[in-house]
Amino acid sequence: MRQMESISLFFICCLWVFTMHFHYGAMEIFTALEDVQNIMNAERKIVDILRMLVLQSDKPRRAAINSYINKSKDIFESPDADPEHIVSHPLNSFRLVKHFSSGWENLRKHLEHDAGQATLIKIEKLRRQARFPETDAIAGAAQGFLRLQRTYRIRTEDFAAGNLPGITKASALSAVDCYLVGHQQLLDGIYDYAASWLEIALQKWPKEKRDPLSSIQKSDILNSLQLSYYHLGNVWMALELCKTIREVDPFYPNITAKILTYQALLDGTTKWSVNAMKLQARPPPVRVDNGLRGFLCRGEDTSPSGALPHLRCLYETHKNPYLILQPVKLEVVHVSPDIFILHDVILDSQIERLKKVAATHLQPATLVQSGSDKSGVVETMTRTAKS
User: 175: closest CA among 139, 222, 124?
Assistant: First the structure.
């Protein structure tokens, strides 16, 4: 009986983690609401400082500063600006992370000289105190997107458009946003998803105005896309994309060498294989999570036949005197594995108190390598929590 209770409680925890991961996917980026609130308060002060600097800036710096200020203004005046709404939607949190990390790094280059230096020092101090996300937070966000897509079988087109099942629609991602996600998945070796995100970025590119703070060009999207197709085994598509890059930017680094390399590879390939490459879907099909975790998270019924009579609600006391007057409300929601939901165990006020006390002590969850001591503790993209 005790073994069954332990197993059941384990699966309760698992279900809670996966459910929270979907509905509060942004928690990978912002640990708690307090973090977001502190960052947004600091950002308002930073914007005020930048407004003063605009008056004494030359035209290029003025354009960069105004671009940054306008993005901050959009965040603060958006209906999604509430911190709780930010951490409850992956796309909102991604945009915020991008603005506070890579957006800041692009502006920072304009503040490193002359009158901007004193301002830069003041802003950097504010950012350190508020614990702003660093540029590597983009990588964490892209990895979080991948987990959500695989688990919930979300099409890239829907994800990029802000349409996630079971959650309020958010504003669509831009071409640069999609490029950043796709490029990170390329770096992580997830080539099918990388290609799907980069294809969306390429479609969006001609429809959008260029961001003066962004250095991303159409040729960068094409280059990451051709690398994705090359790693997927479609050398013909990689070659065609390289030819397009040369048309868009004849001086793109190493583009001629890549064309010659891919052409040589195709020359040594049978005509049948080349024709097969031409017929491959664009974007390619992507892998999804067909394991038990994926089924459970999607709410699909994985219970064995005949399990329905075992799904029930009951009061449980475990023969504990304290529970006689107020027994635990137990709901059996799944059989094999056994998953229970415990209702009305803790008050909302107690939850908020626990969150507040724990917020300052949270650290990224890690794994300990088998047979190692503390020095063997490692972080991994498969852990999404802080503890």
Answer: 222
Could you tell me the two tokens for 359? 């917020």
C-alpha count within 13 angstroms, C-beta hemisphere, residue 161: 9
Which amino acid, 318? H
Q: What is the dihedral of CA 186, 190, 195, 196, to 10 degrees?
A: -130
Give kind and range of the element (H or E) at residue 219: helix 218-231
| Beta-carbon contacts of residue 30 (< 8 Å; ≥ 6 apart) | 36, 39, 86, 87, 93, 133
How high is the pLDDT of residue 84?
A: 66
pLDDT for 248 beyond 90: yes
**Measured CA distances, 46 to 80, 122, 138 (Å):** 20, 9, 21
pLDDT exceeds 70 at position 79:
no
Identify the DSSP state of 246: H
Q: What is the pTM of this model?
A: 0.72
Mean pLDDT computed over 156-161: 92
254-290: pLDDT as tens digits: 999 999 999 999 999 899 999 999 999 888 888 776 6
Structure token pair of residue 220: 């960068």
Residue 80 has phi, psi (to 5 degrees) of -90, 10
The structure tokens listed for 332 are 């059996």
Query: What's residue 113's pLDDT?
Result: 75
- Beta strand pairing call for 339-343 and 313-316: unpaired
H or E element, residue 191: helix 191-204
What is the rounded CA–CA span in Å between residue 290 and residue 68?
42
Distance between CA atoms of 145 and 91, rounded to whole angstroms?
9
Sequence-ordered list of residues with C-beta below 8 angstroms from that of 301, at least 6 positions apart, any chain: none
**What is the SS3 string spanning 276-306?**
HHHHCCCCCCCCCCCCHHHHHHCCCCCCCCC
Per-residue pLDDT tens digits for 6-47: 333 333 333 333 333 333 333 444 444 567 778 888 988 999
